[in-house]
Design the sequence.
């Protein structure tokens, strides 16, 4: 049943303005994994290429990842973190010279729900990304220049294939748990369906198994803003020395509108003017909410690649794992357990998306727990240190660890 207990102790300042921006994460709990570094490993090469679900191949795939905690002697305490659309491998702790923590630092660390005193935590940047893992902006070994639009289209299963290769590299056969929110939750679901023997427990937060037409429409407009930008140059903007800055900025601004609820935006911004002393004569940035969106769009240019935005949103559009009637057969025969969570103010992936996942898994005979959390902050709630949300994940992982003994 949905949890109707009101969440207290939050103010407008606690609303994370981005579904995955590590520089805006709030609500830190005590304890940190401290200084961390992002590692890189080449998992596929010309002698061992990556075969994609589409039938295409990539001859070189490098993955950026971070780990926290210690892998135990029996190698059965690993928790895998799957990031959301614009996230990266830096989920917890601090990089040298950076005062901002990883994007899920309030969840991961000593004594936190994903407790690094007990668990060995792994978080990679996914395939097609732009934060150290091979993606469309990477150098194509066959041409010597970036792939651009020659990069093959991806599917959710391809993310999982690369995740599994990383596990093999680390010498881990089976995960205690996989945890993800939004696109990260979709990766967890795909992994549990395609390789249930490797995922003992799956935590799926604010995710979907099948996007609605409205969600596809939001992404379509964002992609068109990028593609129609004069700086896009048919995807060859890196070679041309340009960037589709206006299109990428608009795409990001529109996405931010969908990440917060109307209640959160009203409380955080209302109709407040950015500077009440300046006369209003035109179409500049007059309101505080306009300034916020402009700021988010501007800073996005410095950390994310436009092609990755195109490719990753397209993966989400086509994700529909339950379309195959046999999709749940293997997981139903396994001992995998699921925790599915939603937020009552999330209108991007509303609770019905989570309920659909729950119903399908239950019909297949899977062990599923479900909880809807009351939160004012919309889709971004999965990044916040909501006490009920965090306590639910902590209890689920506690039980998983106890059963693994």
Sequence:
């Amino acid at each position: 049943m949905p949890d109707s207990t009101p969440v207290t102790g939050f103010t407008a300042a606690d609303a994370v303005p981005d579904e995955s921006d590590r520089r805006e994460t709030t609500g830190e709990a005590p304890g940190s994994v401290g200084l961390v570094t992002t590692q890189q490993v080449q998992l596929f090469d010309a002698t061992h290429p990556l075969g994609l679900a589409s039938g295409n191949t990539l001859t070189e795939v490098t993955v950026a990842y971070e780990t926290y905690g210690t892998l135990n002697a029996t190698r059965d305490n690993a928790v895998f973190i799957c990031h959301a659309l614009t996230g990266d491998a830096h989920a917890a702790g601090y990089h040298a010279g950076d005062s901002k923590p990883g994007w899920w630092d309030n969840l991961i660390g000593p004594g936190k729900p994903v407790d690094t005193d007990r668990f060995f935590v792994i978080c990679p940047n996914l395939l097609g990304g732009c934060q150290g893992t091979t993606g469309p902006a990477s150098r194509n070994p066959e041409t010597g220049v970036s792939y651009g639009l020659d990069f093959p289209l991806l599917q959710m299963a391809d993310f999982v294939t690369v995740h599994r290769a990383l596990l093999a590299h680390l010498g881990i056969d089976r995960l205690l748990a996989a945890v993800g929110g939004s696109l990260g939750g979709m990766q967890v679901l795909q992994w549990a369906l395609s390789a249930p023997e490797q995922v003992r427990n799956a935590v799926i937060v604010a995710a979907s198994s099948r996007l609605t037409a409205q969600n596809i429409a939001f992404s379509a407009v964002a992609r068109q803003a990028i593609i129609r930008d004069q700086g896009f140059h048919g995807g060859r903007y890196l070679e041309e020395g340009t960037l589709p800055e206006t299109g990428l900025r608009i795409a990001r601004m529109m996405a931010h509108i969908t990440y917060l609820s109307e209640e959160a935006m009203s409380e955080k911004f209302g109709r407040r003017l950015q500077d009440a002393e300046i006369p209003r004569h035109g179409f500049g940035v007059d309101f505080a909410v306009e300034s916020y969106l402009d700021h988010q769009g501007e800073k996005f240019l410095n950390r994310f690649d436009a092609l990755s935005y195109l490719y990753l949103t397209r993966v989400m559009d086509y994700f529909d794992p339950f379309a195959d009637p046999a999709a749940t057969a293997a997981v139903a025969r396994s001992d995998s357990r699921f925790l599915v969570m939603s937020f009552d103010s999330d209108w991007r992936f509303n609770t019905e998306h989570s309920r659909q996942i729950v119903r399908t898994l239950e019909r297949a005979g899977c062990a599923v727990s479900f909880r809807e959390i009351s939160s004012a902050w919309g889709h971004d709630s999965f990044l916040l240190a909501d006490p009920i949300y965090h306590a639910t994940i902590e209890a689920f992982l506690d039980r998983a660890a106890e059963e693994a003994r």
